[in-house]
Write a structure and sequence with these properties.
With 177 residues, the protein is of the alpha+beta class. Helix content is 36%, strand content 30%. The chain has one domain (2-170): Gcn5-related N-acetyltransferase (GNAT) (Aminopeptidase), CATH 3.40.630.
Length: 177
């Protein structure tokens, strides 16, 4: 089931986000595409829970955090907002889309993306983009298969960590990605 996240979901979302990073990103760390220090920060459940508490208390876009759950367990989330970096060249942004490995292959990521696009359309956005770590083939294939095209590149600095990313652009938000 896809639904809006509430502040009561912060602990489950933070734990799920840390676990999804731990599942997805070790190959990028080993390849030198993702700084080990950033990986360690993002896989710390307590740190992610605090981040989600803040995001849910002060959303960038009301209704912009959606989660996928089954049998009371959070399996993934999508977060949409106005674009945070003008370099993306779009009005809206998919700022995060994560799914636990055990939930992949069921269409949940596409459902989360569609729901997020619905929130963006409802807020008046006509286009959107997403940043993906360069070399994250799973994200690149997912976005391309759902109509996004590669766009700008950037180096984002998160504290002492530099992250090289490619923007993926949807010039029109599809009703069903």
């Amino acid at each position: 089931m896809i639904r809006l996240a509430t502040p009561a979901d912060a602990a489950a979302l933070g734990a799920m986000h840390a676990a999804s990073w731990a599942e997805a990103y070790p190959p990028l760390v080993e390849a030198g595409r993702l700084p080990r220090g950033l990986f360690e920060e993002m896989t710390d459940p307590a740190r992610r829970i605090r981040a989600f508490e803040g995001m849910l208390a002060r959303p960038l876009l009301p209704g912009g955090m959606l989660l996928a759950e089954a049998e009371g367990a959070v399996l993934g989330f999508a977060l949409v907002a106005p674009a945070r970096d003008a370099a993306l060249g779009t009005g809206g942004e998919l700022t995060g889309l994560y799914l636990l490995r055990r939930a992949q292959g069921r269409g949940l990521a596409t459902e989360l993306l569609a729901a997020g696009f619905g929130v963006l359309r409802g807020a008046g956005f006509r286009d959107a983009g997403a940043w993906a770590v360069q070399g994250n083939g799973a994200a690149e294939r997912f976005y391309a298969a759902r109509g996004a095209r590669p766009g700008p590149v950037r180096t984002e600095h998160r504290g002492p960590h530099a992250l090289h990313e490619t923007g993926w652009i949807w010039t029109e938000l599809p009703a069903r990605p």
